[in-house]
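Task: sequence in, structure out. Protein: ABC-three component systems C-terminal domain-containing protein.
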Amino acid sequence: MEFHERIGLRPVLWAHLLGLTGTAFESFFQDLLGLVDPSFVPVRTHGNIGDQGSDGLSLSGGKLYACYAPEVPNAASTVKKFKSDLASALVQRARQFHTFVFVHNDVRGVHPELATALAEARTDYQSLKFEVMGQPRIRDMVGRLDRPTAESLLGTPLPLAHESRVGLVELEELLGQLRESRLEAADLPHVESVSSKKLLYSELTADTQAELRDAMKYSPSIEGYYNERIDVMERDEVAARFRNEYAEVRVASDDPEVVLQRLQIFLAGEGAPDGRASYRAQTAVLAYFFQTCDIFENPPPNWRVPEMSAAS
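Result:
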């Protein structure tokens, strides 16, 4: 799927997932995995043996998938379902998997109680790996399909053009926090600045380099935000999606300004940001991931600043 098609996919998939619960969500997930993983085997509930703790198995990946999609997400019920499916799978499918993937439909993400249950399971069953799959990973998988296949899966055509305020949902809280904050320079804790060589090596315009450099003063706030999250994998997973998107956009264009613009669209949706404060927040997020080397490359060790750039 092309970049603009993946952007257009977001609101369509979001609305589609909001209406899927119970067996309808399980069927959708099984259809999706069957398209992206040829070794995937869907498991249907059968008689008095149920599904034996699994809604599907990836034979090549050694993954067991367990879905839970209630009409109204509830933390206690979700944790109970996670523990029940895990216990059943360990008894009845012990040699069939080495990674347990819990798939859910809660667009708000992982509840703290489920995060705790996952941490406990990792401690109790150290020979197993555990993953949680929610809307972001499902969106990424659908985005790897070609347009006709995605439209067939969703049962609706994707828009030919797209303009939306929808961005990465998991960053909206962060963007709101940055947008509303008014930080004085004296109040900002020190954070190591990115090398000026990386900014020059990026070949971004001088104005863009200056804008990113100034926005890096918000990096301590962003780092602090992620350090306080219960879901310790959130930052790494968001960064991984930025790296994947950057790699794909870099193939499509060698113009660094176009690359940065497309990353902003990836972050915040098509169209101009709604006001200067919103633009500043989005720029701060991009600057943070630039600074942590998740987007754009570092210069090689033997690279030297061109004389004209050094003189300026």
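The first strand starts at residue 40 and ends at 42.
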